[in-house]
Design goal:
This protein is mostly helical and about 190 residues long. It contains five helices and two strands. The chain has a two-stranded antiparallel ribbon. Pathway: Cofactor biosynthesis; adenosylcobalamin biosynthesis; adenosylcobalamin from cob(II)yrinate a,c-diamide: step 2/7.
């Protein structure tokens, strides 16, 4: 079996189920940006090393990101979707833990700090890009897994909270955005 298919030579690819589409359609843009996100998470994992406590956690997140991309590559639920509510619940638990264990802030922070935290901020940005591409797909009246949309939304918060926690654990002060209004203290 060859890794190349030659479908892409004229700008086409195949979705789950076999449908042939152009590589720039919203569905391919959505799962392509999720793939980019997963590569950035992989870079972060490689920067950690296997001895890090976060290594296993982020590899699990990568598995779920791949599931999410697979769901967006699947039109009209041609096979059962993979992203499920318990994945979102897990993210919410982690977000709450990392947020509570981080220094309190009331303004936006500049992305950065340690190398790992900066890499996690990139993961957050790539997640938001994937989410925007997913919304483009929804606006085209395409069928999507609603849980996958929720997953992307929570995932960006997860990376933000984790980046802040990583900086806190390293005793790396965050730089606050000077012109920020008061945030993060609103009631739900």
């Amino acid at each position: 079996m060859n890794v190349y298919t030659r479908y892409g030579d004229q700008g086409f690819t195949r979705l789950v189920g076999g449908e042939r589409v152009k590589k720039n359609v919203p569905r391919v843009q959505a799962y392509g940006s999720i793939d980019t996100l997963n590569a950035q998470v992989g870079f972060t994992v490689a920067s950690l090393g296997q001895e890090s406590a976060l290594y296993t956690e982020l590899v699990q997140v990568q598995q779920w990101i791949f599931d999410c991309g697979s769901d967006f590559a699947t039109p009209e639920e041609k096979r059962p979707y993979k992203v499920e509510p318990q994945m979102i619940e897990w993210l919410e638990e982690k977000i709450d833990f990392y947020w509570e264990e981080s220094p309190k802030i009331d303004r936006f922070v500049l992305p950065g700090g340690t190398i790992i935290a900066a890499s996690l901020h990139l993961c957050r940005c790539f997640t938001r890009e994937a989410e925007r591409n997913a919304i483009d797909l929804v606006e085209q009246q395409e069928a999507v897994n609603e849980e996958a949309l929720k997953f992307l939304n929570r995932l960006s918060d997860y990376f933000f909270a984790l980046a802040r926690w990583v900086n806190g654990q390293a005793e790396q002060p965050e730089i606050l955005y000077e012109n920020s209004v008061s945030v993060f203290n609103r009631k739900k």
